[in-house]
Amino acid sequence: MAGGGNQNGEILTEINVVPLVDIILVVLIIFMVAAPLVMQPKIDISLPKSSSTDIDKSKKPMKITVGKEGELFVDGTAVSVDQLRAEAAKRSAQNPDTNAILVADKAVTLEMVTEIIDAVKSNGLKKVAFSIQKR
Question: What is the pTM of this model?
């Protein structure tokens, strides 16, 4: 029977949802693949270079990143200096042997680096290492 009717002569008024579900699933997969790329914080750091490195990577250190404009991050999360102090105190209470690695852009002032080291060491962390690029 032509005209899209069924056996009783009625016109079918249902929407075919299979193509819609296919499109939604493809869009969902695209978002699932693209989301981790978008969600990672991008911090542009230009590290100073050195030919020697001495870091003990067996322990999980607290990674402190300082950007060109003085932005401060702890393990990829933006923090203030007060929050850095609290995090250093929390980690030293959990494990007294916790170390810190300072990743600072070479344009960061000595005053900012000194303030960060003072904030970390005064709250219980004993060692602070500087991250550099190998030549």
Answer: 0.57
